[in-house]
Design brief:
The protein is an alpha/beta fold and 508 residues long.
Length: 508
Amino acid sequence: MKRVLISVYDKTGLIEFSKFLVENEWEIIATRGTSKFLEKNKIPNTPIEKLINFPELLGGRVKTLHPFLFSAILARRNREKDLEEIEKFNIKPIDMVVVNLYPFKEATSREELKLDDALEFIDIGGVSLIRASAKNFKDVIVVVDPNDYSEITRLLKEEKDISFNKRIEFAKKAFQITSEYDSYIFNYLNSLTEKKEFFTPVINLSLLKIQELRYGENPHQKGALYSEPDSPFFQNMIKYQGKELSFNNLLDINSAYELCMEFKEPFCCIIKHNSPCGAALGKNALESFEKALQTDPLSAFGGIIGFNCAVDEQVASEIVKSFYEVVIAPEFSEKALEIFQIKKNLRVVKFPFGILNEMDFKRITGGWLVQEKDSIDYVKEKLRVVTKKRPSEKELKDLLFAWKVVKYVKSNAIVFAKDLQTVGIGAGQMSRVDAAKVAISKARLPLKNSVVASDAFFPFPDALEECIKAGASAFIQPGGSIRDEEVIKTADNYGVSMIFTGIRHFRH
């Protein structure tokens, strides 16, 4: 008879799984809470106290930490000496360990939870059992996820045993779980310290694969989507229709999502190759979409449309008149969803708005660059007018709008705006004057009396002059160039206004 140790907090699916094991001549050994649960459901089991001849101590803090138990798990079946030792002490091997842990992360997410109560959710014995059984995976099946019960059941039915490859998969999952668990505890304790470490000595990246993608950025590259553990972002995402989301779709969706989060009023942006080619505020979703589209309707073709407001049938009717890859929004009306079905391949996706990461990761050869997210909040009073002429109230609104948009345009970046909509965008150029020239050349709307945002300082007056000649009347930029005075003097000579923010928005 094979033996299984069961010690679980989450008892989902345990009744059916345990019944299967008993019916297939497995002896169940269980910790106190699990044992009582099994007894209540008339499933025979041996309480662990009887096996080790030792009671639980310290209110349950110590119940599985015993050499008898760990010897039964860690004994190597191909080592004669190991088998002789456990036989000497009348220890029978354990062939499967089924454990899941106290829900530390979920418990500590409750603001009212006191520290002493939080500490009781740190699992000690469970983690030790998982590690021991995973270490000896060749001889012990380790099960840490109730979702795996059905797979274990199927394999034992069909193959009578678990193959080496499957055992190692379960062991990998076990160490993944314990690694995540320790990181949750570290993050919680770090949050309690007066001086919080933003860049901790070690960063654990435990990512869960959601799905493999058709390919990466290009068809010859493999790609996949991974999620941070327990992140509500993809859990609460609803894809109503359309083809599978591609690698590039997801990159563009992220840019659209983050840009939409910058505004509270109805806003729309159209993203192409990870930069906005149009963005606007409006009275509603329809007006904001129409204004965003006016910026560059040619580039908008095949783009990703993002909204921060509900999408109704009026705007849906306009969207289906052309070809777009994806539409994202926090809500869609039933009628809008019906209209979108005209375009079967159009991906229509609802995202839970309000979630932003604190840290930004960029992969480089041999490591990662880690930084705070560029999510600084601007206080209007802290902006510094550096020219003789001050921007009008209308220009100031347009400047602040353009300043938020330019943050999401690839550097070097120049954004022309007027009436709370973009009217020209120059992205990803190696010189700022070229970014200005691109924005001007692509403009489809009049640039007269428009405003300009630059993601970094003007190193020379040349880009400023190009924008002024095109019709710009006000500028917003970080400042900080050794030629600031020359740039300011040029602005004064042309009679335009300029604001320094003191902060730049590079986006590489």
